[in-house]
Design the sequence.
Protein backbone atom coordinates (compact mmCIF):
# COMPACT_ATOMS: atom_id res chain seq x y z
CA UNK A 1 0.00 0.00 0.00
CA UNK A 2 1.49 3.35 -1.08
CA UNK A 3 1.92 5.96 1.64
CA UNK A 4 -0.05 9.15 1.19
CA UNK A 5 2.76 11.27 2.60
CA UNK A 6 6.31 10.26 1.64
CA UNK A 7 9.20 11.18 3.90
CA UNK A 8 11.56 13.67 2.29
CA UNK A 9 14.86 12.14 1.27
CA UNK A 10 17.96 13.45 2.96
CA UNK A 11 21.26 14.17 1.26
CA UNK A 12 24.65 14.47 2.92
CA UNK A 13 25.57 18.09 2.21
CA UNK A 14 28.43 18.49 4.69
CA UNK A 15 30.89 19.00 1.81
CA UNK A 16 28.85 21.80 0.23
CA UNK A 17 30.51 25.16 0.68
CA UNK A 18 33.64 23.48 2.09
CA UNK A 19 35.15 21.18 -0.55
CA UNK A 20 32.29 21.05 -3.05
CA UNK A 21 30.51 23.76 -5.01
CA UNK A 22 27.70 21.44 -6.15
CA UNK A 23 26.50 17.91 -5.43
CA UNK A 24 23.99 15.67 -7.16
CA UNK A 25 20.62 15.55 -5.38
CA UNK A 26 17.93 12.86 -5.58
CA UNK A 27 14.38 13.70 -6.55
CA UNK A 28 12.19 14.16 -3.49
CA UNK A 29 14.90 15.69 -1.33
CA UNK A 30 14.59 19.17 0.18
CA UNK A 31 16.97 22.01 -0.59
CA UNK A 32 18.92 22.63 2.66
CA UNK A 33 19.05 26.02 4.37
CA UNK A 34 21.60 28.38 2.86
CA UNK A 35 21.74 26.39 -0.38
CA UNK A 36 20.03 26.40 -3.75
CA UNK A 37 19.26 23.84 -6.43
CA UNK A 38 19.63 23.85 -10.19
CA UNK A 39 17.45 21.47 -12.21
CA UNK A 40 18.39 20.84 -15.84
CA UNK A 41 17.33 18.59 -18.70
CA UNK A 42 19.20 17.01 -21.61
CA UNK A 43 18.78 20.09 -23.76
CA UNK A 44 20.39 22.39 -21.19
CA UNK A 45 17.17 24.09 -20.03
CA UNK A 46 17.57 25.04 -16.37
CA UNK A 47 15.52 26.29 -13.44
CA UNK A 48 16.37 27.18 -9.84
CA UNK A 49 14.85 26.22 -6.53
CA UNK A 50 15.38 28.07 -3.26
CA UNK A 51 16.14 26.68 0.20
CA UNK A 52 13.27 24.69 1.67
CA UNK A 53 11.80 23.65 -1.67
CA UNK A 54 11.24 19.97 -2.43
CA UNK A 55 13.03 18.77 -5.57
CA UNK A 56 10.49 17.41 -8.04
CA UNK A 57 12.25 16.51 -11.28
CA UNK A 58 10.33 16.50 -14.53
CA UNK A 59 10.98 13.99 -17.31
CA UNK A 60 14.70 13.79 -18.20
CA UNK A 61 15.63 16.33 -15.51
CA UNK A 62 18.45 16.03 -13.01
CA UNK A 63 19.12 18.12 -9.91
CA UNK A 64 22.19 19.63 -8.31
CA UNK A 65 22.46 21.26 -4.91
CA UNK A 66 24.89 24.16 -4.70
CA UNK A 67 26.19 26.47 -2.00
CA UNK A 68 26.40 30.13 -3.07
CA UNK A 69 29.45 30.86 -0.93
CA UNK A 70 31.22 33.08 -0.15
CA UNK A 71 34.40 31.29 -1.20
CA UNK A 72 38.06 32.22 -1.04
CA UNK A 73 40.85 30.94 -3.27
CA UNK A 74 44.50 31.74 -3.89
CA UNK A 75 45.23 31.93 -7.61
CA UNK A 76 48.52 31.99 -9.50
CA UNK A 77 47.89 34.46 -12.33
CA UNK A 78 51.30 33.86 -13.94
CA UNK A 79 52.36 30.24 -14.45
CA UNK A 80 56.02 31.32 -14.75
CA UNK A 81 55.90 33.19 -11.41
CA UNK A 82 54.09 30.90 -8.95
CA UNK A 83 55.05 33.04 -5.97
CA UNK A 84 52.86 35.89 -7.23
CA UNK A 85 49.28 35.28 -6.16
CA UNK A 86 45.81 36.75 -6.02
CA UNK A 87 43.49 36.04 -3.09
CA UNK A 88 40.04 35.98 -4.58
CA UNK A 89 36.74 36.20 -2.71
CA UNK A 90 33.73 35.22 -4.80
CA UNK A 91 30.26 33.73 -4.72
CA UNK A 92 27.46 32.52 -6.95
CA UNK A 93 25.66 35.38 -8.60
CA UNK A 94 22.05 35.88 -7.53
CA UNK A 95 19.35 35.16 -10.08
CA UNK A 96 18.57 37.97 -12.51
CA UNK A 97 14.84 37.85 -13.32
CA UNK A 98 15.44 39.66 -16.62
CA UNK A 99 17.43 36.73 -18.03
CA UNK A 100 15.81 33.59 -19.47
CA UNK A 101 18.69 31.51 -18.07
CA UNK A 102 21.30 32.25 -15.42
CA UNK A 103 24.92 31.84 -16.52
CA UNK A 104 25.82 29.89 -13.38
CA UNK A 105 22.97 27.45 -14.03
CA UNK A 106 24.25 26.79 -17.55
CA UNK A 107 27.77 26.36 -16.17
CA UNK A 108 26.63 23.63 -13.80
CA UNK A 109 24.43 21.89 -16.37
CA UNK A 110 27.24 21.93 -18.92
CA UNK A 111 30.41 21.38 -16.88
CA UNK A 112 29.23 19.97 -13.54
CA UNK A 113 26.31 17.69 -14.33
CA UNK A 114 27.53 15.16 -11.75
CA UNK A 115 28.61 17.79 -9.22
CA UNK A 116 31.70 19.94 -8.93
CA UNK A 117 34.50 20.07 -6.41
CA UNK A 118 35.59 23.50 -5.24
CA UNK A 119 39.17 22.71 -6.30
CA UNK A 120 37.95 21.99 -9.85
CA UNK A 121 36.16 25.33 -9.99
CA UNK A 122 39.23 27.19 -8.71
CA UNK A 123 41.35 25.42 -11.33
CA UNK A 124 39.02 26.59 -14.09
CA UNK A 125 39.08 30.16 -12.75
CA UNK A 126 42.87 30.17 -12.54
CA UNK A 127 43.19 28.80 -16.07
CA UNK A 128 40.82 31.45 -17.44
CA UNK A 129 42.70 34.29 -15.70
CA UNK A 130 46.10 32.98 -16.82
CA UNK A 131 44.91 32.74 -20.42
CA UNK A 132 43.50 36.27 -20.50
CA UNK A 133 46.68 37.69 -18.99
CA UNK A 134 48.84 35.75 -21.46
CA UNK A 135 46.73 37.05 -24.38
CA UNK A 136 46.98 40.63 -23.13
CA UNK A 137 43.23 40.95 -22.62
CA UNK A 138 43.87 41.54 -18.92
CA UNK A 139 46.90 43.49 -17.74
CA UNK A 140 48.63 43.20 -14.38
CA UNK A 141 52.05 44.84 -14.85
CA UNK A 142 54.76 45.13 -12.19
CA UNK A 143 54.25 48.09 -9.84
CA UNK A 144 50.63 48.28 -10.90
CA UNK A 145 49.12 51.73 -10.46
CA UNK A 146 45.71 52.27 -8.90
CA UNK A 147 44.13 52.97 -12.30
CA UNK A 148 45.69 49.82 -13.78
CA UNK A 149 44.46 47.79 -10.83
CA UNK A 150 40.92 49.15 -11.24
CA UNK A 151 40.94 48.21 -14.93
CA UNK A 152 42.18 44.73 -14.07
CA UNK A 153 39.49 44.31 -11.42
CA UNK A 154 36.77 45.42 -13.84
CA UNK A 155 37.99 42.95 -16.44
CA UNK A 156 38.26 40.17 -13.86
CA UNK A 157 34.73 40.85 -12.63
CA UNK A 158 33.32 40.65 -16.16
CA UNK A 159 35.32 37.51 -16.97
CA UNK A 160 34.11 35.54 -13.96
CA UNK A 161 30.52 36.68 -14.38
CA UNK A 162 30.38 35.90 -18.11
CA UNK A 163 32.33 32.65 -17.97
CA UNK A 164 31.02 31.14 -14.71
CA UNK A 165 28.16 33.27 -13.39
CA UNK A 166 30.22 34.23 -10.33
CA UNK A 167 30.49 37.60 -8.58
CA UNK A 168 33.85 38.82 -7.26
CA UNK A 169 33.61 40.25 -3.76
CA UNK A 170 37.30 40.91 -3.15
CA UNK A 171 40.66 40.50 -4.83
CA UNK A 172 44.05 41.36 -3.28
CA UNK A 173 47.65 40.51 -4.22
CA UNK A 174 49.37 37.94 -1.98
CA UNK A 175 52.83 36.41 -1.76
CA UNK A 176 52.56 32.62 -2.20
CA UNK A 177 56.31 32.01 -2.01
CA UNK A 178 56.19 30.09 1.27
CA UNK A 179 53.52 27.70 -0.03
CA UNK A 180 55.20 26.91 -3.37
CA UNK A 181 57.37 23.78 -3.58
CA UNK A 182 59.78 24.92 -6.29
CA UNK A 183 61.63 21.60 -6.46
CA UNK A 184 58.39 19.70 -7.05
CA UNK A 185 57.29 22.32 -9.58
CA UNK A 186 60.51 21.98 -11.58
CA UNK A 187 60.25 18.18 -11.45
CA UNK A 188 56.69 18.31 -12.78
CA UNK A 189 57.73 20.63 -15.60
CA UNK A 190 60.66 18.37 -16.49
CA UNK A 191 58.40 15.32 -16.57
CA UNK A 192 55.90 17.18 -18.70
CA UNK A 193 58.57 18.19 -21.18
CA UNK A 194 59.92 14.63 -21.41
CA UNK A 195 56.58 12.88 -21.83
CA UNK A 196 55.91 13.64 -25.50
CA UNK A 197 59.35 12.37 -26.51
CA UNK A 198 59.00 8.97 -24.82
CA UNK A 199 55.29 8.25 -25.40
CA UNK A 200 53.72 7.61 -28.81
CA UNK A 201 50.67 9.69 -29.64
CA UNK A 202 48.38 6.66 -29.46
CA UNK A 203 49.43 6.04 -25.87
CA UNK A 204 48.46 9.52 -24.67
CA UNK A 205 45.35 9.69 -22.48
CA UNK A 206 42.15 10.10 -24.47
CA UNK A 207 40.18 13.28 -23.73
CA UNK A 208 36.60 12.97 -22.50
CA UNK A 209 34.98 13.53 -25.89
CA UNK A 210 31.43 13.16 -24.57
CA UNK A 211 31.98 15.97 -22.04
CA UNK A 212 33.54 18.14 -24.76
CA UNK A 213 30.62 17.67 -27.13
CA UNK A 214 28.14 18.25 -24.31
CA UNK A 215 29.67 21.64 -23.59
CA UNK A 216 29.74 22.62 -27.25
CA UNK A 217 26.15 21.47 -27.79
CA UNK A 218 24.77 23.29 -24.74
CA UNK A 219 26.87 26.45 -24.77
CA UNK A 220 27.22 27.40 -28.44
CA UNK A 221 23.55 28.48 -28.74
CA UNK A 222 24.01 30.67 -25.64
CA UNK A 223 27.19 32.22 -27.04
CA UNK A 224 25.34 32.92 -30.29
CA UNK A 225 22.42 34.49 -28.41
CA UNK A 226 24.79 36.68 -26.37
CA UNK A 227 26.55 37.80 -29.56
CA UNK A 228 23.20 38.60 -31.17
CA UNK A 229 22.20 40.75 -28.19
CA UNK A 230 25.36 42.89 -28.32
CA UNK A 231 24.86 46.56 -29.09
CA UNK A 232 27.53 47.66 -31.56
CA UNK A 233 28.52 51.20 -32.48
CA UNK A 234 26.63 52.44 -35.55
CA UNK A 235 28.09 51.57 -38.94
CA UNK A 236 27.09 49.42 -41.92
CA UNK A 237 30.44 47.63 -42.04
CA UNK A 238 30.27 46.63 -38.37
CA UNK A 239 26.67 45.47 -38.80
CA UNK A 240 27.63 43.28 -41.77
CA UNK A 241 30.53 41.71 -39.86
CA UNK A 242 28.27 41.11 -36.87
CA UNK A 243 25.68 39.33 -39.05
CA UNK A 244 28.36 37.24 -40.74
CA UNK A 245 29.67 36.11 -37.34
CA UNK A 246 26.17 35.08 -36.29
CA UNK A 247 25.70 33.05 -39.46
CA UNK A 248 29.05 31.31 -39.02
CA UNK A 249 28.33 30.48 -35.37
CA UNK A 250 24.94 29.07 -36.34
CA UNK A 251 26.63 26.76 -38.86
CA UNK A 252 29.19 25.69 -36.25
CA UNK A 253 26.31 24.84 -33.91
CA UNK A 254 24.73 22.73 -36.64
CA UNK A 255 28.04 20.93 -37.19
CA UNK A 256 28.31 20.16 -33.48
CA UNK A 257 24.74 18.84 -33.35
CA UNK A 258 25.54 16.37 -36.15
CA UNK A 259 29.03 15.31 -35.05
CA UNK A 260 29.96 11.64 -35.65
CA UNK A 261 30.33 9.40 -32.62
CA UNK A 262 33.84 9.15 -31.23
CA UNK A 263 34.19 5.37 -31.51
CA UNK A 264 32.66 4.76 -34.97
CA UNK A 265 34.04 5.33 -38.46
CA UNK A 266 30.67 4.28 -39.90
CA UNK A 267 27.59 2.50 -38.54
CA UNK A 268 28.88 -0.76 -37.06
CA UNK A 269 32.52 0.02 -38.03
CA UNK A 270 34.80 0.84 -35.05
CA UNK A 271 37.24 3.72 -35.39
CA UNK A 272 40.93 2.79 -34.84
CA UNK A 273 42.48 4.10 -31.64
CA UNK A 274 44.85 6.67 -33.27
CA UNK A 275 41.99 8.18 -35.27
CA UNK A 276 39.76 8.18 -32.18
CA UNK A 277 42.41 10.10 -30.26
CA UNK A 278 42.80 12.61 -33.12
CA UNK A 279 39.03 13.11 -33.25
CA UNK A 280 38.89 13.74 -29.51
CA UNK A 281 41.79 16.20 -29.62
CA UNK A 282 40.10 18.24 -32.33
CA UNK A 283 37.12 18.44 -29.98
CA UNK A 284 39.37 19.76 -27.22
CA UNK A 285 40.67 22.44 -29.62
CA UNK A 286 37.08 23.48 -30.34
CA UNK A 287 36.42 23.66 -26.60
CA UNK A 288 39.43 25.96 -26.12
CA UNK A 289 37.92 28.28 -28.74
CA UNK A 290 34.57 28.14 -26.93
CA UNK A 291 36.25 29.27 -23.71
CA UNK A 292 37.85 32.12 -25.65
CA UNK A 293 34.42 33.07 -26.97
CA UNK A 294 33.06 33.46 -23.43
CA UNK A 295 36.08 35.57 -22.48
CA UNK A 296 35.55 37.69 -25.60
CA UNK A 297 31.92 38.28 -24.62
CA UNK A 298 33.17 39.61 -21.27
CA UNK A 299 35.17 42.29 -23.11
CA UNK A 300 32.78 43.03 -25.97
CA UNK A 301 30.32 45.35 -24.15
CA UNK A 302 33.18 47.81 -23.60
CA UNK A 303 33.81 48.34 -27.32
CA UNK A 304 33.45 51.82 -28.75
CA UNK A 305 33.61 53.01 -32.33
CA UNK A 306 37.40 53.20 -32.20
CA UNK A 307 38.00 49.72 -30.82
CA UNK A 308 35.09 47.85 -32.40
CA UNK A 309 37.04 46.82 -35.50
CA UNK A 310 39.88 45.24 -33.53
CA UNK A 311 37.48 43.53 -31.12
CA UNK A 312 35.53 42.03 -34.03
CA UNK A 313 38.83 40.90 -35.56
CA UNK A 314 39.37 38.88 -32.40
CA UNK A 315 35.87 37.43 -32.63
CA UNK A 316 36.47 36.38 -36.24
CA UNK A 317 39.70 34.63 -35.18
CA UNK A 318 37.87 32.73 -32.44
CA UNK A 319 35.05 31.67 -34.76
CA UNK A 320 37.60 30.59 -37.37
CA UNK A 321 39.30 28.39 -34.76
CA UNK A 322 35.91 26.87 -33.88
CA UNK A 323 35.17 26.20 -37.54
CA UNK A 324 38.59 24.67 -38.14
CA UNK A 325 38.48 22.38 -35.09
CA UNK A 326 34.94 21.16 -35.78
CA UNK A 327 35.70 20.56 -39.46
CA UNK A 328 38.88 18.66 -38.52
CA UNK A 329 36.97 16.46 -36.11
CA UNK A 330 34.41 15.59 -38.78
CA UNK A 331 37.15 14.93 -41.35
CA UNK A 332 38.92 12.23 -39.32
CA UNK A 333 38.43 9.03 -41.42
Sequence:
Amino acid sequence: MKALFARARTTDVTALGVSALALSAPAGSVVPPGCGAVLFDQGGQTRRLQAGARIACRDHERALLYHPGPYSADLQPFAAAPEMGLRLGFGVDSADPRLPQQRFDLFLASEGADGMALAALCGRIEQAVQHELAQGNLALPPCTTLDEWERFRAGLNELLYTRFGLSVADCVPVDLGESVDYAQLLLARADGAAAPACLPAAAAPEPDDAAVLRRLFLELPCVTAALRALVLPPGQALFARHQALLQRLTLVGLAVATMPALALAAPGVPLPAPARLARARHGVAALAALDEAWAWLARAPQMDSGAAGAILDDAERIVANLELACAARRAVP
